[in-house]
Amino acid sequence: VGACHGVITRICPSAQILDVTHGIPRHDIRAGALTLRDALPYLPGGVHLAVVDPEVGCDRRAIAVRTADDQFFVGPDTGMHQPAAAGLGGVVEAASIGNSEYRLKPTSATFHGRDIFSPVAAHLAAGKSLSDVGDLLDPAVLVQFELPSPTLEDDVLFTKVLTVDRFGNIVLNVDREGLAETGLSLDTSVEVAADGSSCEVPFVSTFGDVGVEQPLLYVDAQQMLALAVNRGSAADLLNLNVDSEVRLRPLLS
Amino acid sequence: VGACHGVITRICPSAQILDVTHGIPRHDIRAGALTLRDALPYLPGGVHLAVVDPEVGCDRRAIAVRTADDQFFVGPDTGMHQPAAAGLGGVVEAASIGNSEYRLKPTSATFHGRDIFSPVAAHLAAGKSLSDVGDLLDPAVLVQFELPSPTLEDDVLFTKVLTVDRFGNIVLNVDREGLAETGLSLDTSVEVAADGSSCEVPFVSTFGDVGVEQPLLYVDAQQMLALAVNRGSAADLLNLNVDSEVRLRPLLS
Amino acid sequence: VGACHGVITRICPSAQILDVTHGIPRHDIRAGALTLRDALPYLPGGVHLAVVDPEVGCDRRAIAVRTADDQFFVGPDTGMHQPAAAGLGGVVEAASIGNSEYRLKPTSATFHGRDIFSPVAAHLAAGKSLSDVGDLLDPAVLVQFELPSPTLEDDVLFTKVLTVDRFGNIVLNVDREGLAETGLSLDTSVEVAADGSSCEVPFVSTFGDVGVEQPLLYVDAQQMLALAVNRGSAADLLNLNVDSEVRLRPLLS
Lengths: 253, 253, 253
Fold this sequence. Notes:
The structure is a homotrimer of 253-residue chains. The first copy, chain A, is of the alpha+beta class and 253 residues long. Chain A is 21% helix and 28% strand. Chain A contains 7 helices and 13 strands. In chain A, strands 6, 7, 8, 9, 10, 11, 12 and 13 form an 8-stranded antiparallel β-sheet that branches. Chain A has a 5-stranded mixed β-sheet with strand order 1-3-2-4-5. In chain A, a hairpin with a 4-residue loop joins β11 and β12. In chain A, α1 (2-11) runs parallel beside α4. The longest helix of chain A is centred in the middle third of the chain and has 14 residues, at 112-125. Chains in contact: A-B, A-C, B-C. At the A-B interface, loops of A face α1 of B.
């Protein structure tokens, strides 16, 4: 990270660098995409350098894209920037930058963050255009990002775990609009079932609405349906990992 | 953290943001209070945003306070800012900011750092007053912060573990003045006892005064009595956690 | 870290602070030296504050040095800055700063990063000279940094593990020039042996050249010979730690 900051600062000394996170789990494009999407509305406009790169050194494309909002994303072509870019009006221009004249040489095979993405991002921040930093290409050919959709069968909502944070809080693949289409509503009680275990969980506003070490369903700060244990770990309680299936059934009151 | 930085930078682009730490253990108000108190003398004056928030979403108050020194603290009303504020002349003005007109809307129930504390801190940095950002209240109603006091019985000093760092170094609840009132002095040897184990430990100036893997008592860089093992872990040696009792008895030489 | 930043900012408000890393393992001077050497070419010129300090509080020297390139390193005299300084033309001037008039007082026995190194670095950044901040001394008396050399016996190259990163990627003590002198070349297959286990590993350009969970030998982004497992851990595969011996024997094709 220090080397990337150094590269950017040398090329564009006036750039203001803001680190969103360095805590995305290795190779987890989905966690990266959700984190980027959720942080973007709170960030100043600019050039967004975002690298989760399981295929570094393979023939995956290196790209920079411009949104309708005239902001940029730079990174490997994994689809990771798409949910965030959608919130900025979508991608209107894209370039392949693997052979950018602005990449550092020699270009390592394993650290494109330093050798390709940082210098290109810095040159965009300094005012260069996409056609300056690479070869324009049709945005339609970029890798698409997809989230699994929840499904409703009878009264059971089948969901997937999107992310597990370090506290064991779980984000499910149900956003606020998706929630409106299900039978779940605030202050109801829900049977939450996962492989081998289940429990009854109240759907509340926040942690303080349940006792210590009690589970809760809530809409989190990113407007997603989430499962947690007040001062505990929902991941531990139900033995959940990323991609685990979680079944939700509203209980009659 | 990235979202908080983004919120601050958008409101007050000229703000210089300095991260003290993001390593406070979850919900550990005492560790936060001690870290803040110990860092403050070394920091430039300004607005100090400090959030350890076990009761987020409950009816705990959100506050901003001004010190005699005209610096500000912003965060949940947990008492965490008090030891630091005391070093800046104490709190002279306070405001409740849970309904601040500057909070972000919609305001999430679980991420007040982003939605309430960051925007209020940024507006204070930009020159707003406490009455601009919230409703003034009597500082006397704020939650008080208290540290346990050590007690001396015969020649045994009963202390508590305040913090354990990642190296297993232990800080006890005895400051330099407290130490002067006890029978402990530099270059004496001390019997250190905890639940189920005890050992003889020299009271020295620094790690290098004892051999590798040997224990030491010393006054740490924050002027607190501390227990460590040179290139090892005092927490492991005596099986100590936060709040463990540690008994110290000076040995006759 | 926050306190160090604060000290620097108070002394030299115009200083631009760039954090290279805070992830060097405790007391690991070699990892620090390699990280510093590898990052330096990508950083803006300036004052480099680098502290890994196993002997803090002992009589190890505190130093600041100036390179032929007019950049500075500040830290304990452990040799850690030497590989990086060599890349900047080598050390041309040195000063002992343990009693610098610019150190903070009282000076703690255990936190010289805050009390000695940060203020001296800030004063150098603000334009002071080495003779201003300490007592000049002959650079020849400084602690020397040495890396173990690989040895070749018959067709077996005996190497050592220099570093293990959090992914289990292994850096060996063979640089690109050293490699040219051995029998190893790209696209050959190599028998890699460590205590108790061995396997056949292809020497390739990058991770994507082997299958998932397959091992690879490659020249890393710092031009060092490295051993990894694509989406896995080479450290786990061969049970390797820092300083483990690794024997490499090219296989006939």
